[in-house]
Amino acid sequence: MRYIVRTTIKDIAKALDVNIGTVSRALNDKPGVSAELRKKIMRKATELSYRPNGHARGLVTQRTESIGLLSGAETSTFLSNPFYAGIFAGIEAETREHNYALMFASATTESSIFDGRLPKFIVEHRVDGLLIVGAVDEAIIRLLNESHRAFVLVDYHLPGEDLETVVTNNLRGGRSATEHLLSLGHRHIAFVGGTPLDRGNFHERLQGYRDALESAGIAYREELVRGGQIVGGHDAALDLLDAHPEITGIVACNDANALAAIGALRTRSLKVPEDVSVIGFDDIPAAQESWPSLSTMRVDKIAMGRKAAQRLLQKLEEGDASAPHQIVFPAELIVRSSTGAPRK
User: Fold this and answer.
1) Domain 170-299 falls in which CATH fold?
2) Sign of dihedral through CA atoms 18, 21, 26, 32?
3) How far is it, in rounded angstroms, from Cα 188 to Cα 265?
4) What is the dihedral of CA 147, 148, 154, 160, to 10 degrees?
C-alpha cells in the first residue's frame, strides 16, 4: 500500500533553505517577506502540492473556515424546493470560492441539532457564522442576535428588527403579478397562497395583490384567497373554482402552487389561459418547461445566495463594525403562455 506524505511548511523551508517563519508569513500573506522571495515560496508550495492544515491554522486564527446553513424546513423538503435549491447553489459557489466549508442543518422542532435553543454547531463553535434560509423559529433568531453571533437571514426577515437580511421585494412582486392580470382585463382574480399567510413572504405577496386590486378600484374579497401548503395549490384552486366560478385569473404565491393550480383546472376541463389565467412567483425551471409555459415573477435565486454568503464573510472580517444591511432583490415580470385576456 502506498501512503501519501503531506507536505509541510518545514519541507518548503528546507527546499529553499529559508526560515520556517518566513515561509509561514509568505503563505499567509503577511508582511516581512520580499516580493521576489514570496514568489519563490509560493511557486515551491505549488510544486510540492502543499495544502495548509486547516485545523492548525484554525488554532492560530480562531477561525473554523466553516459556515453553517440553517433551514426551517426538513432537509428533503428544503433541497427538493427549486427556489431554495437555487439559493443553496449560490451559497455553495461563493463559499467554495473563498475556501469555506458548509455545514447544513434543519431547524425543525423535532431536530436533534439543538443544544437548548441554539444549533449545536454554533454553541460548540464549529462554524464561524450562520446563514438562515427561509422562516425559522423567531426565538432562534433573537437568541443568535443577543449572543452577537454573525448571521444573515435569507428570504426571511423580522419586521421592526435591525438585522442582516437578503430578501425579495415580495410586496412589489405580488402587486406586479396582479397588475399584469388587471392589464389583460381580468376583474375576478383569486390568490392561491402557501402557509403562513399572516407573516413572511407569502403575506407580503398577498398584500401586493390586495394593493393592486384596491388601486384599480376593485374591492378585496377575502373569500377569493386560499392559504395552504407550500405546494398545496391543487386543492386550493379546486375549492375556489367550485365556490366562485366567476374567477378568470389566479395569482399564486409561488410557481409550485401555480403549476398545481393549472393541474386542477385541467381536471375541470378548463383551459389555461383561455378560461383562467395563472401567474406564479420565483421562475423555477419547471415554469418554462410546463405546458402552457408559466407567466411568473423571476427572482435571481443564485445571486441571492451569493450575496448572502458575501455579506456573511464581510461581517466576519469587519466584526462588530459591520452595520446591518437589508439587501432587496427585485422580482421581474416574465410573461409566458399561461396568461391572456379573459373570454368575452
Assistant:
1) Rossmann fold (3.40.50)
2) negative
3) 16
4) 90
pLDDT in tens, 122-152: 777 889 999 999 988 888 888 888 888 899 9
Give the distance, in angstroms, between the CA of residue 226 and the centroid of all CA atoms in the same chain: 25
C-alpha 190: how far from chain center: 27
Amino acid at 344: K
Domain boundaries, the chain: 9-52, 66-168+302-330, 170-299
- Cell numbers 424546493 correspond to 81
Phi and psi (nearest 5°) for 334?
-120, 115
What is the C-alpha to C-alpha distance for residues 276 and 251, in angstroms, rounded to an integer?
Answer: 11
Cα→Cα distances 148→56, 70, 113, 176, 301, Å: 25, 17, 20, 38, 28
Domains 66-168+302-330 and 170-299 are alike in CATH topology: yes
What pairing do the DSSP bridges indicate for beta strands 118-119 and 225-226? unpaired
Of 31, 95, 24, 89, nearest in space to 61 by CA: 24
pLDDT for 252-300, tens place per residue? 999 999 999 999 999 999 999 999 999 999 999 999 999 999 999 999 9
CATH number for the domain formed by residue range(s) 9-52:
1.10.260.40
CA-wise closest residue to 225 among 207, 268, 275:
207
Write the DSSP string, 198-265: SSHHHHHHHHHHHHHHHHTT----GGGEE---TT-HHHHHHHHHHH-TT--EEEESSHHHHHHHHHHH
* Verdict on whether the full-model pTM lies above 0.90: no
How, if at all, do strands 101-106 and 66-71 pair?
parallel
Phi, psi angles (nearest 5°) of residue 67: -120, 135
Top CATH class of 66-168+302-330 equals alpha beta
Q: CB 214: neighbour CB atoms within 10 A? A: 11
228 φ, ψ to 5°?
A: 155, -150
Name the grid cell of 146: 443577543
C-alpha cell at 266: 385541467
